[in-house]
Amino acid sequence: MTKVRKARTSILLSLCLSLTMMLSACGGSGDAGPTKEPAASGGDTKETTTTTQPADSGSGSPLELAMQGKYKGTKVTMFGPFVDADQKKFEDSIKDFEDKTGIDIQYEGSKEFEATINVRVDGGNAPDIADFPQPGLLASIAKTGKVIDLNKILDPEKLKKNYNQSWLDMGTMDGKDGKIMAGIWNRSNVKSLVWYPKKQFDEAGYKVPQTWDEMMALTEQIAKDGDPAWAIGIESGAATGWPGTDWIENIMLRTTTPENYDKWVKGELPFTSPEVKNAFEIMSKIWMNKDYVYGGTKSIVTTSFGDAPKPMFENPPKAWFNLTGNFITSFFPETAKVDQDYDWFYLPPIDEQYGKPVLVAGDIYAMFNDRPEVRAVMEFFTTGESIKNWVQSGGVIAPMNDASLDWYTSESDKRMAKLVQDATTLRFDGSDLMPGKVGAGSFWKGMTDYVSGTVNLDEALKQIQKGWDN
């Protein structure tokens, strides 16, 4: 894009007119201020702007204009955590859009994304679009005023039609001068799933529980039949304890209001509150019963989360249930077939007044530089088409309503996508939203100390809460 510089007072009128014509040819529409071409992957620091400009003149939305070839030859930079196989899947998913529009989405992936994005934004080298796997990090940057409010960019009616309202709520964050739509969701993972060995489960005559009471009754029945029902492991090196946070988050969503969940995540509802203690006590009825857990309670801390499901695949199974997100299938035996050897059921509701909440994780895309072609790419990312190829390759769930269930290659994934679309409430992984000293600090450690027996529940909750106080 042609670089824009301030006019000097000595420039002749004719040159000013020529400059105006050049600006118009760039596709901008007026008062953009000092805008320079964003740096490509690994490029030198260059000035960027978050000034909001009107969309390109013409009939249709930026995406529609892009499909007409209006922005052919332009470039949009993007920075995110996708590397290796994930980067290839992402790039495959946008190739058709690039071919049709002529827009080159220059993606840069980094394993150090979280540590790097703040440096780039603060240094004036923000990408046009950034993919945040943890919305808490985006929320901290949004407060600086450097994130563009998508309410001014995207059609709110289209967003409401294509997303469960909970996704839009989770994308709304505090800006510098009030609430803004800080990002849109493009890829999701589901964390309210209980995995089980389907073939043996059916042969044993067990039935998938529809309520929490039914699940507890089945847990007891399996114990009477001679097996511990649950395969649980929270060991993960320096991150030991994190799988346990998913249990608490899921139970919180099933025993109190979404508003209380949000307050808890923000630190306004302490871990020592009755609501949070109740969630731990409900979890403890399973975790602290040696007859319900494979290897007994003490083994939970020493068993790697990836190894935990292994007893489910022995013949006959030595354990039957494992509560983990859909990514856990990568740890299953390569010979195990989905819908045949294993399947999942939704972690049942506890209090029916809270409906069927679903705990999720995923990727939220934020916009830092405003140009018509960037608007077009952002609008594209709100469509199911933007993630179709990735969905078809397996391993992700599209959060958009226009993503066809026919794209999913297994009944398991189809049901998962439908679960997300029909959820009463969606909430993001709470520990990922909390400050690191809590979500990835005292919460993990407190869970571990409690299960290992180092501290009792009240002491553990006080210990976790101190993460907020320090």
TrEMBL record:
Region described as Disordered: 28-63
Entry-linked InterPro entries: Bact_solute-bd_prot1 (IPR050490)
The keyword Signal is annotated on this UniProt entry: yes
Keyword Transcription among UniProt keywords: no
Signal peptide per UniProt: 1-27
Alphabetized Gene3D superfamilies for the sequence: Periplasmic binding protein-like II
Domain of life, source organism: Bacteria
Protein keywords: Signal, Transport
Family: Belongs to the bacterial solute-binding protein 1 family.
Protein name, entry field: ABC transporter substrate-binding protein
Organism: Paenibacillus chibensis
Taxonomic classification: Bacteria, Bacillati, Bacillota, Bacilli, Bacillales
